[in-house]
Amino acid sequence: xxxxxxxxxxxxxxxxxxxxxxxxxxxxxxxxxxxxxxxxxxxxxxxxxxxxxxxxxxxxxxxxxxxxxxxxxxxxxxxxxxxxxxxxxxxxxxxxxxxxxxxxxxxxxxxxxxxxxxxxxxxxxxxxxxxxxxxxxxxxxxxxxxxxxxxxxxxxxxxxxxxxxxxxxxxxxxxxxxxxxxxxxxxxxxxxxxxxxxxxxxxxxxxxxx
Length: 210
Description:
With about 210 residues, this protein is α+β, with helices and mostly antiparallel strands. It has helices at about 10-30, 40-60, 105-115; strands spanning about 65-70, 70-75, 80-85, 130-140, 140-155, 160-165. A six-stranded mixed β-sheet has the order 1-2-3-4-5-6. The termini are far apart.
C-alpha cells in the first residue's frame, strides 16, 4: 500500500501485521484470567506479544528492529515504524487511543512535519517519516481493527492524523476522511451577548497636581 510522499508498505508485511495481531490477542486473552490480571496487564501483554511475533517478518522486509524502553521500533531507508494498541476501532476517541499521550508520539509527529515537503521516501535533516501500526481490540472481541497512519503536529502540542487507513478485513473500510470529529460550535452574531458598558456622570474633574 502507498501513503503520502510515496511511502510504501508491502502488502505481505501488512498481512503479517494482521496475523500477528490476531495471534497476540488470542494469547493475551488466554492469560487474562490468570491471578493478578486486569485490563492494563491484558493491553501490555497483547502489545508485547504482537511486537515480538512480528519481529521476524520486519527483518525479512529489511527493517532494523530495536526496542526503546518497552516500545518496538523498526527502521529501514526512508521509513520508520512505531507500534501501538487501542481499546477500540475508533482511533478518534481518546478513551480508545490518546494520540498525544507520550513524548515518543510527539517526536514522531514532529519528524513527519519536517519530512512533509521532501521527495518520495527521502529523509530531511536526519528526520525520517514515522508510520504507526495500531492494533485495536478488547478481551471479549479480540482483534477488531488494524490501522497504519502518520501523526503530525502544527502547534507543537496538539497531534492529529495526516494519514490513517484501516488495513484489516474485520469491518468497513475507515479512512481519515470518515473519522468522527468533535468540532467546537462557534456562536453566530445573533447569539453573541450584548456588551456591558459602565456609564455615569463625571461630577468632578481631576486636575494635575503638578
